[in-house]
Specification:
single chain, mainly alpha, 1 helix, 30S ribosomal protein S4, ribonucleoprotein
């Protein structure tokens, strides 16, 4: 079975919700701007 090794936070930001692909210790809001879609600056 294959694993996805790409940018996990980029997927979460595109969907607009936490997909729990990263560690569940810290909130996703402290890691990145979840409101801003990837590619938009």
């Amino acid at each position: 079975m294959a694993r996805y090794l790409g940018p996990k936070l980029k997927l979460s930001r595109r969907e607009g919700t936490d997909l729990f692909l990263k560690s569940g210790v810290r909130a996703i809001d402290t890691k990145c701007k979840i409101e801003q879609a990837p590619g938009q600056h």
